[in-house]
Amino acid sequence: MTIIIGIDPGSRLTGYGVIEKKGNKCFFIDAGTIRTETDEMPIRLKRIYEGLARIIDFHQPTEAAVEKVFLAHNVDTALKLGQARGAAVTALVTHDVSVFEYTARQIKQSVVGFGAAEKAQVQQMVTRLLNIPVIPQADAADALAAAICHAHTSQTLLKLNTVALRKRG
Domain limits of the chain? Predict the structure, then answer.
């Protein structure tokens, strides 16, 4: 059993999703957003860090999947997103959670089967895959998708490492 937290970083809304991986199956635990609700960037970063710290303390994940920063058209937006991502990663590593990074395309490919899937498609698939009775908010769904992506990817990596060790032995 592994508890995985997915993070969809944003400077105004940071999505999080927590799942439990048991064997080949993933089970929903929690999801939501951290809303910073201020224009002051240092305060936003503090709220992201503190919000995630509380969630990590409560759920005790051992692994995290964080969406990588995409190349934004606006430099200011990219910088703010990078800072939000940094606050999230800092909260994770401060709590000894192993961090794994995935592009938005990798996450969508893993969950929807199409790397350029729309947000609504991600929301629908996350709802189905985790058997959630209600469609999660878009940022929370993206975070859950990141966690699911990691659950599938880590399972594949474990199998590949096992095969490689057997060949050496």
Answer: 2-168
